[in-house]
Automatic annotation (TrEMBL):
Transmembrane segments: none annotated. Residues 128-187, 244-340 form the FANCL UBC-like domain. It holds the Pfam family FANCL_C. One of its GO terms (biological process) is interstrand cross-link repair. GO terms for molecular function: ubiquitin protein ligase activity. GO terms for cellular component: Fanconi anaemia nuclear complex. It comes from the Eukaryota. This is RING-type domain-containing protein. Residues 354-421 form the FANCL C-terminal domain. Residues 6-99 form the Fanconi anemia complex subunit FancL WD-repeat containing domain.
Amino acid sequence: MYANANILSFPLLVPVNCQFREYIGYIQFQNNQYPVEIKLKSNGLVGDSSNIIFDDLDIKTTDEFSQILQPYLLTIKNRAVQCKDLNQFFYELKDVIEKIPVDSRQQQQQQQQQKLPNADSKKQLPIQVYTMILKELEDIGWKRIVKINDSLNEFQLLFSHDKREFIVNFNITDQYPQQSVITNHPLISLYSDSTRNNIISTSNIDDNSTINNMRLHLNDLYKSCKTIRQSMNFIEKLLEYYHDFFKVMDEIDDNSWVLDPEHPSCWISERRLNLGNNTSLYFNVNPDDPFILPRDCRFLGPSTLIEPYKKNLTKNWQEWKPNLSLLDNFRNILSVEFSKKPTLGSIDDQQTMVECGICYSLRDALTNNLPSMTCENIQCKKPFHQDCIYEWFKSLPSVQQTFGVISGPCPYCTTKIIVSFNQK
């Protein structure tokens, strides 16, 4: 109620909380806009010289605007103590400001022009932009705002979908609403990457047509994504569109041992799953059609151990059934079982050797990658980071290096290991 009434008095002031006891923003005086914070407090004094303090009211602004209001403090105080709420006080404050003589305004304007510009001050948006922003935020609802800066040009909005919560950053420029207001977010990156790669399923003509129509609709929404409301509508449509993809990724993360990424999330389409015996399966789920066979399926580990998986995939890939879960399909096609990640320090955890045999770390210090090279000796099976084994070979005088390939003995069993330069 306060917020709606406040727009009529000072449209550039916005409430900070749902209780409407604190406002931040700007008050326009003549052709200038002054930053102001107005807060109802229970008691206590604030010692800042730029504060105008009444019994229960704290008004904080610049020294410049304080000097303008200084001759009228007694009038403002007398009116404030008679107000029942901030809504009434805003009307009274506006009335006082509008009655300040024109001469005082012109004098203040001249003083401001004589001052050197502050290089650290933030660029203010045009008043018409502030008015549009406040009107949109009023319509959206203040409960959706997670955070907003003092200049009102950067804020975070909360989105909820299927028990998930997403926080998206918005950035307003002086070109608003001609420029998009959404900043980078993994959800937007997921959409942009799939659009750029033109990832569309061909498993079923009817389904493919539906996906294409949805993509065209999303593309149209994205192109017209200028205002805050339009941007929110686009994000909400994205959440609906990727609903199945999120569920598939959750099912993978909950029922298998994910080696990579280190911190899996629903908008990352790549996974590397542990298959045991220092072998693993890498794949990339199609966000637009997550029920089809993932593209770029690869097996990592000793060739003698992963060769059966490769043969099963080549032989049985046509038996993939979109009505089954992704893990169930892999179980049927590859004849594998997926185990969940063991608790830290358990026997299974200790027996799973995934640390690099050279740097003794799980992840490469520079690339954050897991070991992807493995000794072919079944009795050894030591894993290595590509960079580590490459640098190890370069330090040995007896290694062979020809045609983009370097090879040398395993540091543990002397079995020959080959590393391609393009793997670096």
